[in-house]
Design a protein that fits this description.
This protein is mainly α. The chain is built from 13 helices and two strands; from the N terminus they run H-H-H-H-H-E-E-H-H-H-H-H-H-H-H.
Length: 294
């Protein structure tokens, strides 16, 4: 039972993480390879504040604000780049942030990580059990889904798709593509920060190893597998991929095989991402109105 509750909590957190990336990748066409950086910013901001004695509500709001602000500051120079160069810039930002977290021992304790992160306490309720934390993360996942669904169904969301499909045509029709991209990037960063906050307070320990390129590849694979540019795609992808990833950890394997699980998972995820991009780029759930193979 505890395993199922753990899986449900991790799925809820990664669904939020994937939904945030889907705004950028699926609806705006921005392949952000440093998305895990905003996950880390939310996690570390909330963890540091609550460890210093601040209430969880303050840590949560600060985590969202910090992730959104960093997303805004990065988007201004990065979005002036096109195609691969934008992806390289975001990838570089993610790696730079991980190195900062790893080296600034005075603040983050570096490779030793931050232990003892308190459980969330909201309205006098401490979410210190698996059922309680599942309720909390589930509510945040539903709120995230509702907010982002409202965003992408609005005229703003249609403008994002127009920018994704044909930026030049959108500009001709009077849409400022650069501003729409910035807003999309900031929205994705804020909700990635939310996922990071929930992750930090669930695991009660975070370190630089939690925020590597592997995490970005995983969440990108979730979006692509589920169906980028769709409402339910990231959720379906999160259920499938996280169930596989977390279940493997509990297999009773010989000790000499255990050390190979991490590298094998990375190889499987990378291969699966390539296969999906080539043979089924639309994912499990196709975008409404999209053409097969687009």
């Amino acid at each position: 039972m505890d395993l199922l509750l753990h899986l449900a909590i991790v799925i809820a957190i990664y669904a939020i993480f994937a939904l945030s990336l889907n705004v950028e990748v699926g609806y705006t066409g921005l392949f952000n390879f440093g998305h895990v950086a905003f996950f880390a910013i939310g996690a570390y901001t909330s963890a540091l504040l609550t460890l210093a004695g601040a209430p969880f509500s303050l840590g949560l709001l600060a985590g969202l604000a910090a992730a959104g602000l960093c997303g805004y500051l990065l988007s201004i120079p990065a979005l002036k780049l096109q195609g691969d160069y934008f992806g390289i810039a975001t990838l570089g930002f993610g790696e730079i942030l991980r190195m900062i977290v790893n080296n600034e021992v005075w603040l983050t304790k570096g490779p030793m990580g931050l232990p003892g992160i308190p459980r969330p306490d909201l309205f006098g309720v401490v979410f210190d059990t698996l059922p309680a934390y599942l309720a909390l993360s589930g509510v945040f996942a539903l709120v995230t889904f509702a907010i982002l669904a409202f965003v992408v169904l609005s005229p703003f969301g249609r403008a994002l798709k127009a920018v994704r499909d044909d930026e030049t045509a959108a500009e001709i029709l009077g849409k400022n593509a650069f501003r729409f991209k910035i807003k999309s990037f900031v929205i994705g960063s804020v909700f990635a920060g939310l996922a990071g906050v929930l992750w930090a307070h669930y695991t009660t320990f975070i370190g630089p190893g939690d925020f590597t390129l592997t995490e970005t590849i995983l969440v990108l694979l979730i979006v692509v597998m589920g169906g980028k540019g769709t409402f339910l795609g990231p959720v379906v992808g999160a259920v499938a991929l996280i169930f596989f990833q977390e279940s493997v950890r509990f297999l009773r394997l010989p000790p000499e095989w255990t050390r190979l699980l991490g590298p094998l998972q990375q190889m499987v995820f990378g291969l699966l991402l390539v296969v999906l991009m080539v043979f089924r780029p639309e994912g499990i759930i196709r975008e409404k109105g999209g053409r097969r193979g687009d």
